[in-house]
UniProtKB/TrEMBL annotation:
<protein>
    <recommendedName>
        <fullName>Corrinoid adenosyltransferase</fullName>
        <ecNumber>2.5.1.17</ecNumber>
    </recommendedName>
</protein>
<dbReference type="GO" id="GO:0009236">
    <property type="term" value="P:cobalamin biosynthetic process"/>
</dbReference>
<keyword id="KW-0067">ATP-binding</keyword>
<dbReference type="Pfam" id="PF01923">
    <property type="entry name" value="Cob_adeno_trans"/>
</dbReference>
<dbReference type="InterPro" id="IPR029499">
    <property type="entry name" value="PduO-typ"/>
</dbReference>
<keyword id="KW-0169">Cobalamin biosynthesis</keyword>
<keyword id="KW-0808">Transferase</keyword>
<keyword id="KW-0547">Nucleotide-binding</keyword>
<feature type="domain" description="Cobalamin adenosyltransferase-like">
    <location>
        <begin position="3"/>
        <end position="164"/>
    </location>
</feature>
<feature type="region of interest" description="Disordered">
    <location>
        <begin position="1"/>
        <end position="20"/>
    </location>
</feature>
<comment type="pathway">
    <text>Cofactor biosynthesis; adenosylcobalamin biosynthesis; adenosylcobalamin from cob(II)yrinate a,c-diamide: step 2/7.</text>
</comment>
<dbReference type="InterPro" id="IPR036451">
    <property type="entry name" value="CblAdoTrfase-like_sf"/>
</dbReference>
<comment type="subunit">
    <text>Homotrimer.</text>
</comment>
<comment type="similarity">
    <text>Belongs to the Cob(I)alamin adenosyltransferase family.</text>
</comment>
<dbReference type="GO" id="GO:0008817">
    <property type="term" value="F:corrinoid adenosyltransferase activity"/>
</dbReference>
<dbReference type="InterPro" id="IPR016030">
    <property type="entry name" value="CblAdoTrfase-like"/>
</dbReference>
<dbReference type="GO" id="GO:0005524">
    <property type="term" value="F:ATP binding"/>
</dbReference>
Amino acid sequence: MNIYTKTGDKGQTSIIGGEKRSKASERVEAYGTIDELNSLLGCVISQMQLYREIKKELEEIQQILFDCGTDLATPNCSKGYRTSQESTEWLEQRIDKYADIPPALTEFILPGGCPIASSLHLARTVARRAERSVVRVQETEEINIEVLIFLNRLSDYLYVVARLINFREGREDINYRRNGKVFH
């Protein structure tokens, strides 16, 4: 497999099946954003010396994100898609396991906290951007709907895990102040 193909020199890329697409196409943007999210999760994982269970979960999520990207790079897939409902159900189980560990929220919170939690909040926002990109593709082309559902649930998972890690690190959530007052 060549690292460079020179196809991109003219702003084109080949998707699975050989079809050429503009690098600015919505489909390429969507799976590119998923790739960005996957790389960001790799950065988060590299910070994790503790939290082995969550680290393993994030590594599994990286595998699923590769499947999501493959599904998006394969228009009109006749061989079947890779991303399945089971992946979303697995995430839901993880969310249910962790959601009630930190104190319940009564307000919106600011993203942040310890470095790992802050990075997870950033990954959550990239997951939301990826989700929006996939919706744009879905509006004009057929996609595996399970990719969209997985990304939606993934942002929830990342939020819950960021809160969990802050809680375990003794970092309190910072509530959003709605009145806009600046305190000195």
